[in-house]
Design brief:
The structure is a single chain. The protein has about 450 residues and is mostly helical. It folds into two domains: about 1-195, Alpha-catenin/vinculin-like (Four Helix Bundle (Hemerythrin (Met), subunit A)), CATH 1.20.120.230; about 220-405, Alpha-catenin/vinculin-like (Four Helix Bundle (Hemerythrin (Met), subunit A), Up-down Bundle), CATH 1.20.120. It is about 70% helix and about 5% strand. It is built from 15 helices and four strands. It has helices spanning about 1-20, 25-55, 55-80, 85-110, 115-150, 155-180, 185, 220-225, 230-250, 260-280, 290-315, 320-345, 360-395, 400-405, 445-450, and strands at about 205, 215, 350-355, 355-360. The strands form two sheets. A two-stranded antiparallel ribbon has the order 1-2. A two-stranded antiparallel sheet has the order 3-4. A hairpin with a 5-residue loop joins β1 (about 205) and β2. Belongs to the vinculin/alpha-catenin family. GO terms for molecular function: actin filament binding; beta-catenin binding; cadherin binding.
Length: about 450
């Protein structure tokens, strides 16, 4: 009933707003707008209460948690693309969702007697409202001011990402606290404990055209059922990712990985990122969201080890420019590892509407691929910068540096070829070649021009 009332009120509210916009000084138009505004707010409250009556707190928290996670992803992407409007609008949605979670849970706790359980839950809501959300709002304001300036101002992206993750973690902690007193039977379908099913029970199973239930299917299987149009969008992103992968293949194929853990880690990260992008196409060894999350954790661990090794190289580099470049690339790796970790937590859900499968989380799938592509690019640049930095301190310190290098940079041995090339008889003629002029090129450019014969 409330939904019907809102549906009928919608065009009237729009007309009242247009009338007021055309005649802002008219008292009649203002009064008319106020009447429709009051009616709209009243019906929205009625609808909200009706939805609350038929929705359990567990389901509400599940949906809110996933929506906040998707909004966090959108915020990070908008930040990197410099899209101020999307950043501001999405951040506002996050604040609104968090405020509603706090309001609903505080009201729910009034139904329980005071004790350890209510204290834990209220402590989690207090932390979210008084500590996490103010920090998030502050970081959003800083980011918007920096992006809106005539001359873009530098700011810490990592700080913004950390603040965004804390919002998601805060809502997740509230949900965990609320679920403390649930029985195992009540929790058996809950995806918070790494189950394959989607959180909302009404969407746990999907009906096909034959009215057969697809129960408990993996997230990978759901991604494989995407419509062709959506698959094409993902394929486009995967193609861009493969271009970055080719660059990494070409870079690491130049080096012998024995004694060079940076190359080993780069290869490991590349393979894991390939598995994650295959997941978005419904392929590969990763079956569920939990597998993707674990893969993101492995990448983060490999990134941390690469950071440690590369920083050791930077510490020994006497060239300040090379050192700063390397440290800047390491910051990118940390940033994109954070983003990849966030994107990996988005769950896929599927509905059947009129015989057509509708899969949500597509934006999250493309975000996952974009984050992997950005991380791949950062790894390529880090490998190049690490090698260049190593050559600098070897030149300055001589054999003293070679005796105890952080990593050993050895070109991979080329494929065996005949020492003498057999030429055709008609090719036995004098060849005159013009002498090449010596020119200075940067180490990074020279390294980029070198091509290995194979890739891993």
């Amino acid at each position: 009933m409330a939904a019907t009332q809102i549906d009928s009120l919608c065009p009237q509210v729009i007309n009242a707003a247009l009338t007021l916009a055309a005649r802002p000084q008219s008292k009649v138009a203002q009064d008319n707008m106020d009447v429709f505004k009051d009616q709209w707010e009243k019906q929205v409250r009625v609808l909200t209460e009706a939805v609350d009556d038929i929705t359990s707190v567990d389901d509400f928290l599940s949906v809110s948690e996933n929506h906040i996670l998707e909004d966090v992803n959108k915020c990070v992407i908008a930040l990197q693309e410099g899209d101020v409007d999307t950043l501001d609008r999405t951040a506002g949605a996050i604040r609104g969702r968090a405020a509603r979670v706090i309001h609903i849970i505080n009201a729910e706790m009034e139904n329980y007697e005071a004790g350890v359980y209510t204290e834990k839950v209220l402590e989690a809501t207090k932390l979210l409202s008084e500590t996490v959300m103010p920090r998030f709002a502050e970081q959003v304001e800083v980011a918007i001011e920096a992006l809106s300036a005539n001359i873009p101002q530098p700011f810490e992206e990592n700080e913004f990402i950390d603040a965004s993750r804390l919002v998601y973690d805060g809502v997740r902690d509230i949900r965990k606290a609320v679920l403390m007193i649930r029985t195992p039977e009540e929790l058996e379908d809950d995806s918070d404990f790494e189950q394959e099913d989607y959180d909302v029970r009404s969407r746990t199973s999907v009906q096909t055209e034959d009215d057969q239930l697809i129960a408990g299917q993996s997230a990978r299987a759901i991604m494989a059922q995407l419509p062709q149009e959506e698959k094409a969008k993902i394929a486009e992103q995967v193609e861009i990712f493969h271009q970055e992968k080719s660059k990494l293949d070409a870079e690491v194929a130049k080096w012998d990985d024995s004694g060079n853990d940076i190359i080993v880690l780069a290869k490991q990260m590349c393979m894991i990122m390939m598995e994650m992008t295959d997941f978005t196409r419904g392929k590969g060894p990763l079956k569920n969201t939990s597998d993707v999350i674990n893969a993101a954790k492995k990448i983060a661990e490999a990134g941390s080890r690469m950071d440690k090794l590369a920083r050791a190289v930077a510490d020994q580099c006497p060239d300040s420019a090379c050192k700063q470049d390397l440290l800047a690339y390491l910051q990118r790796i940390a940033l994109y590892c954070h983003q990849l970790n966030i994107c990996s937590k988005v769950k896929a859900e599927v509905q059947n509407l009129g015989g057509e499968l509708i899969v949500s989380g597509l934006d999250s799938a493309t975000s996952l691929i974009q984050a992997a592509k950005n991380l791949m690019n950062a790894v390529v640049l880090t490998v190049k910068a690490s090698y260049v930095a190593s050559t600098k301190y070897q030149k300055v310190y001589g054999t003293a540096a070679v005796n105890s290098p952080v990593v050993s940079w050895k070109m991979k041995a080329p494929e065996k070829k005949p020492l003498v090339k057999r030429e055709k008889p008609e090719e036995f003629q004098t060849r005159v070649r013009r002498g090449s002029q010596k020119k200075h090129i940067s180490p990074v450019q020279a390294l980029s021009e070198f091509k290995a014969m194979d890739s891993f």
